[in-house]
Amino acid sequence: MLEFLRTLHPGWCALLALVENTALVGLGALLGHGALRLPGARRLTPAPGPVSGQEYALVASTTLINTAITVAGWWLWRAGVIALRPGLGPGAIAELIVLVMVMDVLMYAGHATAHLRVLFPWVHRLHHVFADARPITLFALHPLEAIGFGAMWLVVLAVHPFTVAALTAYTVLNLVFGILGHLGVEPLPPRVRRNVIFRWVATPTMHVGHHAEPRYNLGFYTTVWDRVFRTLEPGYDTRRTATVPEPYRRPAAAVAPD
């Protein structure tokens, strides 16, 4: 597979990247709508209305930007800036854990920066226009945000040679966390949410809480950095462990934190 990709014509690479990123959006939407129909799913924010033209436009823009980032990654890999390795097993699992931990730190830092009062109105506020989130809201981003995340991703890949298996697993994991956090519901049953693991691993409720109250819950995969920097929403653990989580109030207006 790697040899096939290495000899691929740039035009075919761009087409393949577009198909891949479009498929990820479609897969995410299917995953999200399936999770919304789980028997124990509890709605935490009001159901969103019809999808707006603006949201569709932003999703299309993010898909095209992600396609360009994928092609850029392919070009950097062919140029030797990014190294990929085959391999499965414990090594790939360890790499996945490291990758998640590194991206968790970087994404928290990037997200907190995007919420600074001087930056928020110009870039990240656009994502918070869609307070009553739906599955595709994950991809409704300002172009600069999509470019920023993609650039961060490429820098991480350039620093260390990861296995293809670890990168593939991370892509799937990132999609799952992103989609489940943009449903406005908590699909996990109480006995799962109460497990000590989920004190540290983010549940869907965590990012739902961020859309309801943008000052809090800036992390993505874990609650570690929100706990360290005291940005965890005060009622999060109560909702997380409740048999029937209390719904959030109508999501707050998209404003920068104090």
TrEMBL record:
It is found in: Membrane. It holds the Pfam family FA_hydroxylase. It comes from Actinoplanes oblitus. Residues 97-231 form the Fatty acid hydroxylase domain. InterPro entries: Fatty_acid_hydroxylase, Sterol_Desaturase_Related. The chain crosses the membrane at residues 12-36, 56-76, 96-116, 136-156, 162-185. Keywords: Membrane, Transmembrane, Transmembrane helix. This is Sterol desaturase family protein. Its main location: membrane.
